[in-house]
Amino acid sequence: MSHTIGFIGLGVMGRAMSRNLLGAGYKVVVYDIAPEAVENAVAAGAERGESPKDVASRTDIIITMVPDAADVEQVLMGCDGVLEGARPRGRPRGRPGVIVIDMSSVSPMASRKFSAACERKGVDFLDAPVSGGEPKAIDGTLAIMVGGRKEILDRALPVLQAMGATVTLTGPVGSGNITKLANQIMVAGNIVAMGEALVLAAKAGVDPEVVFNAVRGGLAGSTILDAKAPMLYSRDFKPGARISLHEKDLRNALHTAESLGVPLPFTSMAQQMMRALMNTSRGDLDHAALVQFTEHLAQVEVRKG
Fold first, then answer.
1. In percent, how much of the chain has pLDDT > 90?
2. How confident is the model at residue 240 (pLDDT cuts 50, 70, 90)?
3. Tens digit of pLDDT for each residue in 241-270?
4. Which residues contact residue 138 at a Cβ distance below 8 angstroms, ignoring those fewer than 6 apart?
5. Which CATH number is 81's domain given?
6. What's the rounded Cα separation, in Å, for the pair 72 and 9?
7. Whose CA, among 148, 188, 225, 287, lies 20 to 30 Å from 53?
8. Has residue 26 been placed in a domain?
9. Active-site positions?
10. Comparing C-alpha atoms, which of 188, 186, 181 is closest to residue 147?
11. pLDDT at 241
12. d(CA 229, CA 208)
């Protein structure tokens, strides 16, 4: 447990992930723009960082877990940012440099930009977005998708394993976020289809909870169905993964697809549904609340019978 970990970004996911690092025995130095989030982490055993620069100067692996690419750029490259405080490789002589692991969900192009900035400073970089939402962040069973060099991942692997059940090297820098975008496309498609199916059942007068229990053991069964269908018929949309953040991921997927000449018609539709809900102040709801788009069209709510 020789690594000292810097953790920047203590939102829904980050606070749980940092606690798992503490639980694994790591010394963790934290920073967030929200003082209350820092206070809670310190109460759990973390050390307080005064800025991203301060965190970087005191640690050898720095994890960023913030909402979007602009936030990552500010944390890494802004005034008092990580790259002002991070120790470059070879100082002192022969010592490896620090590793920056961006676990935020951003575009692969942004990941490559951050990697290049780190390289200019003699700092190693991995993009390592996650899937699993708040429940798996809490119990340390996230799926972690890594882009970067294997020798860098090997150094960081025990740290990532403290937060995830699977850690998969997907290719060079940017590949982690390509994989995350693919994940988010599949998740969105599943949620949209599940919502439409249960809206149909509700409109026909069939209890959606009964439909859920009837189909979950068959081919339609899935992790998403098990996690999200009960939220629909219980009308519990407390966010584990917010609509606004998922919409951002689908926008990144569409921008990436545009650059590659790949048509993504269903992804575009799901992104537009999310945008419509954000325009009616529902962006902070869990992405299971995508059902509300179809409910509005059908003039029915998915509820227990």
1. 92
2. confident
3. 899 999 999 999 999 999 999 999 999 999
4. 16
5. 3.40.50.720
6. 10
7. 148
8. yes
9. 180
10. 181
11. 87
12. 9
pLDDT single digits (tens) 82-100: 999 999 986 666 567 899 9
Report the pLDDT value the prediction gives residue 89, as an integer from 0 to 100: 81
Q: pLDDT by residue (tens digit) across 125-141? A: 999 999 988 889 999 99
Q: Quick one: 129 and 208 in the same domain?
A: no
Residue with tokens 């219980």: 234
Are 291 and 297 spatial neighbours (Cβ–Cβ below 8 Å)? Answer: no
Output the six-digit token pair for 137. Answer: 């962040």
Structure-block tokens of residue 264: 């993504």
Residue type, 250: L
Q: Which two tokens stand for residue 44?
A: 């759990």
Return all residues near 12 (Cβ < 8 A) that are at least 6 apart: 134, 137, 239, 240
CA distances from 233 to 70, 206, 273, 293 (A): 36, 12, 20, 15
Mean pLDDT (the chain, rounded): 95
In a shared domain, residues 74 and 159: yes
Provide the number of structural domains found in the chain: 2
Amino acid present at 153: L
Q: Which of 120, 139, 172 represents a domain boundary (last residue)?
A: 172
299 membership: H or E segment, kind and range:
none
SS3 at position 264: coil
Q: DSSP letter string over 145-156?
A: EEES-HHHHHHH
Domain endpoint, select from 133, 156, 172: 172
**Amino acid at site 161:** Q
- Say what the pTM is: 0.91
Query: Are 168 and 185 within one domain?
Result: no
Which tokens is 113 given? 């930009």
